[in-house]
Amino acid sequence: MKPVGSRRDGATLVVIDMQRAFRDAGQWQVPRYREIVPVISRLQQSLGSGPVFTRFIRDEAETGAWAAYYKRWDEMRFPSGSGAWDITMDVPGEATVIDAPTFSKWGPELAALVPEGAEMVLAGVATDCCVLSTALGAVDAGRFVTVVSDACAAVSDEAQQQTLALLELLSPMCEVVTSREFLAR
């Protein structure tokens, strides 16, 4: 993956948690999940090789506060090898897949793929949880984050709007744009 020269050149598309656990009926279902799939596909085509896909995979140890979390969301206690954690989109051969048992996917693996000062383009689910957490971590680490609003989905339309409004407050470190605006750059 090449480092970013300008904000648009070499931007890294990071697709957050497009998995069966969030698509299919259940406690974590994201209602507009299927609507964002074609938008993410267009972004992939535009940005070319080197996308990053992430997967939330439950840590079966459920340490600390995670025990209380999974007590609330008891139907989501899938084992780490469960098909519920499968990515539902086609993952290109040159893509990197990062697994994490945390909301934020920002960490050393992703930091190595998105150099300091580079642009990370975020898409996926859920805007109000894993996308938000990942954006905050990346911004704190000095990365430019572009959240493509119609390539993300939240647990509700209200949560989507509230989260996007919060992210807009982080400008210029975090920018919220539509896919049309992003692709027109």
What does this structure look like?
The protein has 185 residues and is of the alpha/beta class. Helix content is 35%, strand content 19%. The chain contains 7 helices and 6 strands; from the N terminus they run E-H-H-E-H-E-H-E-H-E-H-E-H. It has helices at residues 20-23, 33-47, 66-72, 108-113, 127-140, 157-168, 179-184, and strands at 12-16, 52-56, 96-100, 119-125, 144-153, 174-177. Strands 3-2-1-4-5-6 form a 6-stranded parallel sheet. Helix 5 (127-140) packs parallel to helix 6.
In short:
This protein has 185 residues and is an alpha/beta fold. The chain is built from seven helices and six strands.
Task: Give the SSE map.
Layout (H helix, E strand, L loop, with lengths): L11 E5 L3 H4 L9 H15 L4 E5 L9 H7 L23 E5 L7 H6 L5 E7 L1 H14 L3 E10 L3 H12 L5 E4 L1 H6 L1
Parallel strand pairs: 1-2, 1-4, 2-3, 4-5, 5-6
